[in-house]
Amino acid sequence: xxxxxxxYGKGIDGYVHYTQAIDEAKKGGGKGPxxxxxxxxxxxxxxxxxxxxxxxxx
Length: 58
Hints:
Elements: H1 11-27, H2 39-57
């Protein structure tokens, strides 16, 4: 077994970081889009709410 784990380092520390990264990737713990929505969803929601207020009160 190689003792160099590339960007994760060398030796036991590199191995630990490497296995943690692999475990996170399997769990889906990577950085990706939020399933609950993001900034664009919030902006669209605000515009819809404002449109409903304008329609109801004008």
